[in-house]
Fold this sequence. Notes:
Layout: E1 14-18, H1 23-34, E2 38-43, E3 58-60, H2 65-74, E4 79-83, H3 98-112, H4 115-128, E5 132-133, H5 136-139, E6 149-150, H6 161-176, E7 182-186, E8 189-193, H7 199-209, E9 219-222, E10 236-237, H8 239-247, E11 252-256, E12 261-262, H9 265-275, E13 278-282
Amino acid sequence: MAAPDNAQAAPRKLGIVAGGGDLPVRLVEACRRQGRPCHVVGLTGSAEPRPAEGIADDWASIGEVGRILGFLRAADCGEVVMAGNVARPDFGRLRLDWKGIRVLPRVLTAARKGDDHLLRALVQLFEEEGFAVTGADRILDEAHVLAEGPLGGTDLPENCRADLERAIEVVEALGRVDVGQGAVVVDGNVLAVEAVEGTDRMLARVAALRAGWDRRAGLLLKLPKPQQERRVDLPVIGVATVEGAAAAGLAGIAAAAGETLVMDSNAVAARADALGLFVVGVKR
């Protein structure tokens, strides 16, 4: 008997190439809610083993490209998402398989141009191998994408608007040269810009710099790079980001509305309210 014309095709099995942090776990949870099969390949040195949460079914070094592809094919994955924090490897010590050796020259060339070029090269590699590459925001529900306006009970105060404009100028300039997605601005002064260390360590630097200051001021801004491959490495904020901003003496966090992932928006809003910080989604 033929299937009815309006029957929807079952979603393709999702392969999750997992780095560290909560995002891979959230993707596994989303797949389970959707009844969608998934298979997780954890990247050694980056992903965290959490068997109860489905991280991971298999493990491979980021240089074992053939091994990663083999795991995804054996699991019959048709679509792939790359998610989580991945430490930039020491290419001189990276463990490689034969496929990794073959693609290493092009990966090195891309890496020298910046992280966005590197991620684009990886996306292209998966596509050349027959996988459709999707973004985490296409898998997660809308509650995981920052909306425009305040998340929680506090909006952007008027005395932070000039800092926001300055931060947008700085982060857009960083993005154009493929450096980072974030900056901290206080009273018009750029206290830190995000590079390879990531947001949490940047905020820790600001906390050390501002030790002894007795008032909250300024903000952290996170924006995607203008030329960014949107299927990978969108800005992410979570409870740890809020706590880092509070420890740094900031008044709050601003991030790109519709282009920033939020790890548990209810928990982020509650923690921000408890600490007296704003978290707002902004449109450029």
